[in-house]
Amino acid sequence: MKKLTTTASLALAALGVLASGSALAQNAGDWVVGTGWFHLSPQDSSKPLTVTSPVHSVLAGSGASVTNSDTLGLNVAYFIDPHWAVEGVLGVPPKFKLNGSGTLARVGELGQARQWSPTVLAKYYFNEGNDAFRPFVGLGATYVWYSDVKLTSNLQGALASQFHVRPSSVNTTAKLDSSFAPVLNAGVAYQFDKHWGVSFSVSYIPLKTKAKLTTTSITGLPVARSEASLKLNPIVTYLAATYRF
């Protein structure tokens, strides 16, 4: 009788271990949502500002750099099986500031813009579905566009001087090109219990854009057009709290 009782106790303990493991498992059909903090660090470079009309000329030695930015993020992942997941990532559009460099360093801040970059990733999770700690890698794409593009009065004045007109007689507006870009992603996830967890990831986005500037007179007549190419190539870190359904 004692032996039977001992065997039953061991069996119940084994079932308990299995139950606790399966409670952490990521299975086909699971949804995981997360929210946390993005830090975007551009690894930037730029080409000189080039006047394209009325006369082609290059502002030799001019350049620009982009500041770091932080914002709130949201991600939603669907597990196809215990290892493969598809994830969508969004964030409150971060605001970046563009500062002059080289011969434009004296101008200081050139302008600012908000960046929109919704992302879709295919992710592979290592270890087993019932492991609490799971490294992952991901590959995907993002579509990037910009809003609230504003130029500072300092840049407005510098451009007016370049075109030999009074700053008060002209106005310059800017547009940044939209583009698709690949996203390389890697990170780790840790599951505390059946529902709650945390994840940390690092992404690299080889990204470039072209700033197109249009200078017009106060009556709306075109005065000049100019442009500058920027490589942003941001490294993006993301720390998030997650919840599994």
UniProtKB/TrEMBL annotation:
<dbReference type="Pfam" id="PF03922">
    <property type="entry name" value="OmpW"/>
</dbReference>
<dbReference type="InterPro" id="IPR011250">
    <property type="entry name" value="OMP/PagP_B-barrel"/>
</dbReference>
<keyword id="KW-0732">Signal</keyword>
<protein>
    <submittedName>
        <fullName>Outer membrane protein</fullName>
    </submittedName>
</protein>
<dbReference type="GO" id="GO:0055085">
    <property type="term" value="P:transmembrane transport"/>
</dbReference>
<feature type="signal peptide">
    <location>
        <begin position="1"/>
        <end position="25"/>
    </location>
</feature>
<dbReference type="GO" id="GO:0009279">
    <property type="term" value="C:cell outer membrane"/>
</dbReference>
<dbReference type="InterPro" id="IPR005618">
    <property type="entry name" value="OMPW"/>
</dbReference>
